[in-house]
Amino acid sequence: MGNPTDRSLYLLESQWTSDVGRTVRLNVLRGRPQVVALFFTHCEYACPIVVEDMKRIERALPDELRDQVDFLLISLDPDRDTPEALREFRQRRQLATAQWTLLRGLEDDVRELAALLGVNFRKDERGQYAHANVITLLNAEGEVVHQQPGLNQSPQFILDALRKAIPKAGKPQAVPAQSR
């Protein structure tokens, strides 16, 4: 692997806490494409659909790509989405620890990452977040290579982008999700 380019999200200095309580920087994800979405566990509408869309992408992966792609959910709600809340969400949604990473960060870090992903959001008086529904594909170096806006979209566009994002020579190496 070469050095990340100036377009890589892995250059961010922010620190994140996983649902297993580990503190990590995003560069721990380097080496494998990531299917990414911003969400929050108390969402009453869109986030469960986004997560189901990501699970549909995971199920649609051909065998040759299945063990080369990871899924990343980053909370917009650092106040309520504690590591415990993220862990409960993982269990409720049956998100495999081998492929899925759930992270929370400080409010300013979440805003910075959301801006870099082009995801606008704001918190309303009920504690819900109005936000863009976007699934982003990062290549192994943390660069945005595809974005899929909307809900209930076909996984085909992300799958096509994934085929282009996965290095042809050998399997990419990265820290397994359960270690993050």
Describe the structure.
The chain is an alpha+beta fold and 180 residues long. It has one domain: Glutaredoxin. Helix content is 28%, strand content 22%. The protein is built from 5 helices and 9 strands; from the N terminus they run βββααβαβαββββα. It has a 7-stranded mixed β-sheet. Strands 6-7 form a two-stranded antiparallel ribbon. The radius of gyration is 15 Å and the shape is globular. It starts with 15 loop residues before the first strand and ends in a 15-residue tail after the last helix.
Total strand count, please? 9
Strand arrangement, major sheet: 2-1-5-4-3-8-9
Reading the helices and strands in chain order gives EEEHHEHEHEEEEH
- Computed over alpha carbons, the radius of gyration is 15 Å
Number of discrete helical segments:
5
Number of domains: 1
At CATH's second level, what is the architecture? 3-Layer(aba) Sandwich
- Low-pLDDT residue intervals, each spanning 5 or more residues: 169-174
Major pleated sheet: 7 strands, mixed
CATH fold title = Glutaredoxin
Q: Percent of residues in helical segments?
A: 25-40%
Q: Any idea what the CATH superfamily is called?
A: Glutaredoxin
The computed structural class is alpha+beta
Shape annotation: globular
**What is the CATH top level name?**
Alpha Beta
What percent strand? 15-25%
Distance between the termini: 20 Å
- The overall pLDDT, averaged over residues, is 88
